[in-house]
Amino acid sequence: MLNGTNGTTRIDFPNGLKIERAYGKVVCYFPAQHPAENNPYTYILTIPGQTILPDGSAIIADYVDDWHPGDDQTYIFASDDVALPLIARTRQAGDRMSWKGLAGSKKIKDIFIDAKIPLESRQTWPLIADNDGHILWLIGLKKANHEKISAKQAFIRLRYKKKTSGGK
């Protein structure tokens, strides 16, 4: 297990103890004390406004007049393209999303695996969905294709601000 190089490996021991190796990192934990397995969340975003996530990071939502692609911590899209309200949440079994250049859709689980995101991080990784359940943004990894632009559209800008380690 310790010398393996493929993905994630986990061994379950008596009394719930788990030892997990993920992409070169080994973690030992009891599920009751492990936040990654016990803190799924769902928040409705207020626009404009700020939503604080359980890890202290924030999603800041506001309206802007123009569209640009932004960076991996910013997502701007036409408000007419989504069903409000927007929801910040953790992944759920079977979640899928699609983006420009992808034929069909892809499971969130597979996106995490392709990006080599450790299992412990996947459980609390934030994503944004609309009220119809369409996943718009897997923060830092993928954005749905919402580039239908006209001069009269209003745009929503979402910005992700990770909590700095100095604030603990």
UniProtKB/TrEMBL annotation:
The EC number on file is 6.3.4.19
The answer on whether this UniProt entry bears the keyword Ligase reads yes
| Alphabetical list of InterPro entries matching this protein | Lysidine-tRNA-synth_C
| One Gene Ontology term of the molecular function aspect | tRNA(Ile)-lysidine synthase activity
Keywords from UniProt, A to Z, are: Ligase
Q: Where is the Lysidine-tRNA(Ile) synthetase C-terminal domain?
A: 86-160
What protein does this entry describe?
tRNA lysidine(34) synthetase TilS
